[in-house]
């Protein structure tokens, strides 16, 4: 047949490759050594030929490539049928054994030989699956034969009956089963890694399974912190790779949220994102409480005060726990610290900024709740601007109390950040918020809930400041792209926004190419100009609608519609003009950050 099973526990990816010369049958094999010997020497006097030593072994003859025979479709079909019949028998046995052990209260009393027998049984099932995939996905296989694996849900069955059920059995028998669980984890990981390389048709499934196995391995490591960190990184790598291939799948962001501990701000971002993508992961609504509950009860030591209050606000808005006073205190404590934190964090607030910006936008979407007024507006058909999918008028639907509170918090947060428009570390936050606002302007019913609270005048001043400080002509008519021939270089927040419902049409096609995970979130000096150009592009797109902001092409200035030309409150900003002049003078004297 030419289809060989995997040897027990061997990951062929890690085996050394022999350096051999290959030739077709009947061809003469010329090695590198022979080639070098045929070169003419650079010296004029030949060296005397040495007689062969009697102790030297005779030269080895190189073996020719083994002859391979083609396989017919009938042979492949027969092979697949035979493999599947054996696979079903082993699968049935695994299901019976796992169910029996799960319901057996004396399962803890299994001895080593019994555990090894169970491992051998599940290993056999994994090998049967491997043989099935190799045969059904053979290069000579017909299309109907290739479709069999998907038709019979073979990848899912392999994970469920060959790996997951047994892992759960082992997990519930910890710590007595620890050694056996480690053995099986390495076995399963090796098999998945092999399938990832040899069966690309189900690459996305193998990638997520590798992430799951890495998370299992991380979770049971209590003794060695370094090992735990290594496996956390391994699992994160596979989940990130999976999310790149399926950015609309919320389940992957939920798993990344778990791995983000102890970075609570990043956890909040991932949890919120898992609910605000086209395929939300609804189980997040339960698991996210493991982040919120401890913050309701006390102030965790590993969190800064400002992160604690920010997450507490979102926890109250999300769960409804706590009273209005608790929410008001948390909001106030966050807002009074925000300006000073941005100033003190400097470059560190680049990442924190887009985490907070995305979480803030998700809070306005009710964390993906279908009853949220903005979610309903986005779900309506384009030809029904005022009527929801259930026939009710969205404009007549009053927003919920939690939406009103979330909007108040978002507007005040954005207001404080905008007043630091000369601080380039605020650009990622502003970028993510404007992407959200631009999307909402496409839905009249959606923007109607936001437009009266959004600080349009401060936004206008910020846009004019960045426009005046640029020493190049920004691209505002079209999405700013690299020069012709250059590869796109997405911003870190581009990856963070990828997949979100409100960012679906923002990036051009093929904007996200293949890039190493470590490079995705690496900050480059040139990204400051890219962010400014992107923000100006978003401002121009909003202004081109002529409803909130305006743009004068002759003077190259942003303006504002009279309805939103309000007086700016706050002693820190007596007038926009004087503040703008102050920032410009500071830059001219070298005390401020240079613009574009």
TrEMBL record:
InterPro entries: DNA/RNA-bd_Est1-type, Est1/Ebs1-like, TPR-like_helical_dom_sf. Residues 236-500 form the DNA/RNA-binding domain. SUPFAM superfamilies: TPR-like. GO terms for molecular function: telomerase RNA binding; telomeric DNA binding. Residues 48-60 have a biased composition (Pro residues). Residues 41-64 are annotated as: Disordered. Pfam families: EST1_DNA_bind. GO terms for cellular component: telomerase holoenzyme complex. One of its GO terms (biological process) is nuclear-transcribed mRNA catabolic process, nonsense-mediated decay. It comes from the Eukaryota. Transmembrane segments: none annotated. This is DNA/RNA-binding domain-containing protein. It comes from Dactylonectria estremocensis. The lineage of its organism: Eukaryota, Fungi, Dikarya, Ascomycota, Pezizomycotina.
